[in-house]
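Re: export button greyed out
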Amino acid sequence: MATRTRLRVSPVQSTSHSWALASDTRLITPVVEQIVDMCQAAGFSARHCRLNVPVAVTEALANAMQQGNGGDITRQVTLAVQVSPERLVVEVTDEGSGFELAECERTPDHADWFEREDGRGIFLMRQLMDRVENCCLDAGHLLRLILHRV
Amino acid sequence: MSFSLERTDDVLIVTVDGQLVVTNRQEFKQAILDAVEQGVKLVVADFSTSGYIDSSGLGALVSLSRRLRESGGDLRLVGLNDDLRTLFELTRLDALFPLYATRADALGTR
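Workaround output, generated via the alternate export path:
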């Protein structure tokens, strides 16, 4: 008697996309919307698509443009995104000299958390992603965000 | 994102439509600061039709809240969906802003 092997077929293929952006924050929202669409197609949850992904990716791009590239519109940010049914990986590279995540992260335990206007971006990325890591490159700085679908 | 302003005496209701993020937070903040300079004491920001808020948007709200408190006023937030409430809870900013379900609730406790 022949045995049937049941193949588990993933409903969604992995997708990837990359962008090269000028350091202009007006470019952020349209790119974020495309990444959210990729995540929706891969079956990420509504919460991920409405909150975790758009906020964390916006933070990463804004940080690269404003801090890494100093708001210099002629300096470039590159963005590489891989989405699979298992996870989202976002890599943002700027032309800056980089920073230490732990040293730059402010938390609600800091005395001025409820008074100061800036300084919550890294904390938010860490809260909304499963993993946030960075490294300095020969020319520039890379920030990687990872979010597991389940 | 767009927003509309409705002023009655010293009360300003701001309806936020779409995201409050790095690209538009300054315009949002300045419009409210202008109203505060003209005598507004209570600002009710309605997020019923909003998308997400990033750290820049949160920062603008923190800054406006401080400015209003300095002038004896208040900034109250209305209509946050579950995602936005989570955002405020994660950042513990729900301790800074009074969160109300409806505009009537926000206006009723003056």
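The beta strands of chain B are 2-8, 11-20, 42-53, 74-78, 99-100. The button fix ships in the next patch.
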